[in-house]
Amino acid sequence: MGAFALNQAQQSDLIIKLTGGTKRVIALPDFRASGAAAPFADVFNKTVYDDIERSGLLGIAPKSFYPLSPPQQESDLRAGAANCGGRCLSDWSASPVGAHYLGFGYAAEQAGQFVAFGHLFNTAVADIAGAKLIRKLYNAPLTEQGAIQAAHEYAADILAQFGVPSLAGTKIYFISDRTGSKEVWVMDFDGSNQRQVTRFNSITTTPAVSPDGLRLALK
User: Fold this and answer.
1) Considering Cα of 159, then 161, then 163, then 168, what sign does the dihedral take?
2) Is there a smaller number of Cβ atoms within 10 Å at the N or the C end of the chain?
């Protein structure tokens, strides 16, 4: 009887941990890109997805559940109950997508610039105008880095709707002994662009960056 009671208590604890809290879900159909912007569409889409996923704030609906004809601009949306092939907001809020928000848009080249047209809509609001949260142009150089920059800005605007700052543009300082001694290194928030900061050839620990980002204190 004692063993059974213990197992029962353990199972109750496990259920509480698994069911606690529910994330809001966003659907992020890929932006299509035309002309000279087309080669940078994949890196733009991946950057937006990664920024939202890393935030830990929103769940992202699996793309395999998305309707076949997602909107690319606001004029593509249709007022309707459902079954618009992806052009009604209710197509995204209903099963199997089950998204509370829909982010969409497209990219193009304009005057030698990479331009992304980004939108965010609340799928729970039936009125299209009332559901609109973001409708904005993002301009950047017509390069891979430019597309990444535009994607970071779009993702940051999405996160700002929920009061969460984006990590894009921030740096992480850390200690690494890969050179044979413990030195300070720095990298972008996503782990890219790692570079060595100190070269003391000794033990360096506990780096602290000043609020203005101009000075580094070490132990």
Assistant:
1) positive
2) N
